[in-house]
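Task card 7
Instruction: Convert sequence to structure tokens.
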Amino acid sequence: MTGVPSRLRVAVVASHASVRSQLASLVAQSGHEVVELTAAPDAILTDRAIDGLPPAPVVAIGPVERDLAGRLQPDPTARQIDAALRAVAAGLTVRGPSPPNRSFGPFVDEASPVLTPREIEVLAALSDGLSNKATARRLGISPHTVKFHIESLFKKLGAASRAEAVVKGLKRQIVEI
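Output:
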């Protein structure tokens, strides 16, 4: 991540003064300087949505309605905050683990499967609607190898079809459309 200073200027915006103080302490523990929102920060750390167009990339802690550069689960460590701030300052997007499933159906606590980088590429190709042959051409592998990876994806994701594998990959934020 070239171009990112070793010590960032971070604005902390929080819903309460006590929360702001805690977040500012974590930012300082990470070795960064806490500045005001109007002081041209490199990044912003908040526990709520920022109104208007923020002057720097934002890392939000907890659920927010707005799509921001970074999002972390509640109670992040100073190390996680440091990594997220550095990433968004470098222009990257940060997403913590998915929040718990709040759908109408029963919540099933499924451990997220560990997919290989190649399986993720194959799942992305599936999400693009590619055939096995087109996926093989895109990835520079044989159609037989694609079929092998798809079977592995079905087992790991507990899917019975390509569409179900894509849906499960989307829900777990493994792939995006």
